[in-house]
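Escalated from tier 1: adenosine monophosphate holo job.
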Amino acid sequence: MRKYVIMGVQGSGKGTQATMLGEDLDLVHISVGEIFRLNVQQHTKLGAQVRRTMAAGELVGDDLVEGVVKARLAEHDWNFGFIIDGFPRNERQAEFFLESYDIDGVIHLDMPDSEVRRRVLARRLCSGCGMDYNLLASSPAVAGQCDVCGGELIPREDDTEEALAVRLRDYHQKTNPVLDIFRRKEYVVTVDARPDREIVQQAIRAKLGLPPRALPVPSQDGQPASSGQPASSGGQAGPQPGG
Ligand code: AMP
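Tier 2 regenerated the structure:
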């Protein structure tokens, strides 16, 4: 059983790296932002509660977030463990989490704000199936259209200059102290999030003492056959499951 937290500023590749690690180790990937986005898309009561806060790039209230995390982890579908992304984001959430769960490590993806801005503003989301794209690394076959379901590709509502500025400020003010709490417990491994995503993934594994990831085996047509992750694409290449 392995329980990891992955942290990093928006656009640092948390969702991508968590998915890559989770697939291989059979860890359930829990993205709090993704749970909220699905609720907004499906017009649930929770979605209505968080939509405006999210669109402004602000943090949702702690009680609501903790309730969502508690309920998700109580599903106990994580026989081999979980990797949680986007939580905890402030000191109170960190304390709540440490009181309730033992964790094996915190993966901190390190990226300068200038690079975050470049990546986030190129991010698109499929309005149909929720798949994430990053136009810097790979464009869809038809501009503006999802390769998977043909849905329209739109920016995330919170991927604007204004909302990003709020999120970066919040991250530095509130999330850095969380890293300090985890560092005191010697949980944190810091990885440079700028290189190709395969390199970032191998660095994460090396620092956590995990075996390296087997690279996708090319099939006869030269496409990766096993994992579905292109081996040579950039850190945020798309499409990716949302997050
Ligand atoms: P993310 O996909 O992680 O960037 O999250 C998208 C949005 O969901 C954030 O900008 C917040 O509005 C909200 N959110 C996600 N996780 C949390 C959290 N741990 N605490 C408060 N708000 C959160």
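The longest strand covers residues 2-8.
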